[in-house]
Amino acid sequence: MAPAHKRNPEVTDPGDEKIQGHISEFSNGVFAFAITLLILEVAVPAGTLKANLGSTLISLWPNYLAFLISFFVIGMYWSVYIRLLREIIRTDRTLIMLNLLYLLFIVVIPFSTSLISLYLSKLSVMIYAALLACAGYMHTVLRIYVGNNHRLISSKHSTENIKRGILLSLTTPVWFTFSIGVAFYSSVAAQISWILVVIIYAILVNRLRDKVLL
After folding, report:
1. What backbone phi and psi angles, to 5 degrees, belong to 153?
2. Considering just the CA atoms, what is the radius of gyration of the chain in Å?
3. Does 103 map to a domain?
4. Domain hosting residue 67, numbered range
5. Which residues contact 85 (CB under 8 A, 6 or more apart)?
């Protein structure tokens, strides 16, 4: 069950607060469903003999890697997303539509993970990177919309903090976009770069927690 929406004391319109609660609960459910689907791709092939179990498990390393990267990327997108939701004090139709588009790219991540697990190639790596980049760019679009002139965001955040948060949110999708070019030369190098961006982004978020709107 998705966690209950936490009330924002700055929300004065009961209708806005109710809609925010629905957005939060629905979005959390989508994230939970997407992240749960990932593990379904990490399965031992049917008919594997006991004598070959060890070598079969080792051969599944692309599945493990794709699962871990996707798990932490979804978790990373979710963690900054719910912080943003807590600061939204008004809602409108555009917010709802942008939110749905963002969730669309989140639920596609398990498909891209399955693709790279089953058909590890330059093409599958490029598709995977492109889809995760799109999710990150959509998150940035959402931030720009709610933060522009404090359209839907809490006034306690300065314009500078909002801008820094937008720039920080671009770190991951820009990196994934860059990795598409890297995949032309080496799919392994592209995958290593994904691990690096997760680590780097986590460090940046931790260091800039009080200086940006996460």
Report:
1. -105, 155
2. 19
3. yes
4. 14-207
5. 20, 23, 24, 27
Instruction: Fill in the amino acid letter for 162.
Output: I
Tokens 């912080």 correspond to 83
Report phi then psi at 88, rounded to 5: -80, 125
Residue 97 forms part of a structural domain: yes
Q: Is residue 1 part of a domain?
A: no
**CA–CA separation, 125 and 74 (whole Å):** 17
Provide the 3-class DSSP secondary structure of residue 153. Answer: strand
Tens digit of pLDDT per residue, the chain (214 long)?
444 555 555 555 555 677 888 888 999 999 999 999 888 766 655 555 455 666 666 766 777 788 888 999 999 899 889 888 888 888 889 999 999 999 999 999 999 988 887 787 899 999 999 999 999 999 999 999 999 888 998 888 888 888 888 998 999 999 999 999 999 888 889 988 998 988 888 888 777 776 777 6
What is the total count of domains within the chain? 1
- 73 secondary structure, DSSP code: H
Burial of 35-71, coded b for 16+ CB within 10 Å and e otherwise, reads: bebbeebeeeeeeeeeeeeeeeeeebebbebbbebbb
CA atoms of 204 and 198, how far apart (whole Å) = 10
**Residue 184 is encoded by which pair of tokens?**
């032309």
47 secondary structure, DSSP code: T
